[in-house]
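Quick sanity check, Cwf15/Cwc15 cell cycle control protein:
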Amino acid sequence: MCTPQIQKAARSLRLVPSNASCTLKCGTGFGYCSQVGQGTANEVELLDLREELERKEDKYEVDKGRKKDTAQDKLRRLEENKKILLLGDAEADARESQLKKVASKYDDADDGADSDAFSDSDSDSSDDEDEEAELMRELEKIKQEREEERLRKEEEERKAAEMQSRDEVLQGNPLTQQQAAGSAKMKRRWNDDVVFKNQSRNEPEVKKRFINDTIRNDFHRRFLNKYIQ
């Protein structure tokens, strides 16, 4: 039987947990509890197998990504991005043709490379990634230029429509038409020159004569001059 002193010494040295019931070998030394997480041989073997499996999976993913990351794929992605761009820009077409030449050059270099040179393929992969990033930057720049050009044309069309609408409104107003002709005075009506007419306050007063004769007065003379002669 283990004495309480032995169990207390074991707990103080952290050889056994305080709440664990362990079978100790009295007289020959302390016994150890075989629990999960104590680093047994089986656990170490399983841990090594897991690390090896993870390394193999990482290597497979790297090899798989390297094989698919070719210049043909980059050119295909370039063609897909081209579909979303507007057509008709000569400068953008020249840039695209230049980018295609660069992509075809790297495509030929990838076809002629030796598949056994693993270290060389790593450097080629990094170069291809740099070229792909450069191609994507060029495409983004082209799209931005196209978008700015489209917005500028829309703004010009909007201003032209506003000017046309303003001209139509001005042409439909008779007052503005007379001002454009150089005279803002309204045309006199046919009945302005009558005897009993309320004259405008702003119109200058004309000195009138009184002739007690319906034939020789001023109105009769004006009437004869206007309609008889």
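Posting the structure with no commentary besides this: Residues 12 and 18 are 9 Å apart (CA to CA).
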